[in-house]
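Risk register update: the risk of archive-format incompatibility is retired. Evidence:
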Amino acid sequence: MSGNGARQLPEIEAKVLAGERLSGEDGLALLQVTNLPWLGFLADTVRRRKRPEREVTYVVGRIINYTNVCWVKCTFCAFYRLPGHQDGYVLSREEIFQKIQDAVDHGGTEVLFQGGLNPALKIDYFEEIFRAITGRFPVHIHGLSPAELIYLAKVSRLSLRETLLRLKSAGLGTIPGGGAEILVDDVRQAISPLKDTVEEWLDCMRTAHQVGIPSSATMMFGSVETAAQRVEHLLQLRSLQEETGGFTAFVAWNFQPDGTELKGKRASAFDYLRTVAVARLMLDNFDNIQASWLTQGPKVAQIALHYGVNDLGSTIFEERVVSAGGTKFMASREEIERVIADAGYAPRVRNTRYEILR
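Archived output:
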């Protein structure tokens, strides 16, 4: 790095050590840094300030991709099948119950319930299945991304607020931050032109937080966005968190190109570590930064614990969305705990709201 950006770095370091908020210009300078150990030092400093215990958390849960039927045709997605396609599916109640029972048998407390935008599934389907799940199993439903919720409200002819309140009453506990991609409309038009806009995504999260449904936040990087657009994404999240305080964690994962219309190259481990470190530094009002075990695998996830990350997400028994793009890392409780311990931290099991269970 050279020029004004390089001269700016000592000032950024002084800001970080003093606990001052970084600007968008600072974030852009940091995303051009090639001195990765220095960046890791800054991110780890902030992580230890927020999470002084030498602990790394994870949740025992299971991902359930209840349907792959989706009409949105995102160019970065290898998972979806259009309505009427011979490979389209909706899991039966018995299949869903079997998967949840398997998770509970392994000590699971969370079900990540997520799928495509299926025109055949309206709000009564989700109310019925959520009530059936919570009535039968002692699990927390972490379900339905903003894209699913926005479409569900439209297809059910309800307001977004009413949709969220009905789902909350049926058992929805928290919302995953999927579908954020990059919160810049130019990027969204390029990779998923039929999906919700930036303002629609933000308003969905804002409304969910207002009615008492917390959520995580994500960023899918490495598709077509610029470094400046990554920073804009982080600033959008920081601003909404300032307003609502409803985000529990931030998760960055890189675009998985295999089998997608968009194609392209997979981001490097270097880029991933730099991105999560910058996220830790920019998102000063987020307590938790989660590693993307699914896309990075155990070795990079382990290194990320020294780049601002304090959580390893969920156990992964099965996953169909990201893995359709060519990544198939799975994670058992034993493997997660080994990775954490080998990095010099104590593993701690949490629930979806980041409360320690043991």
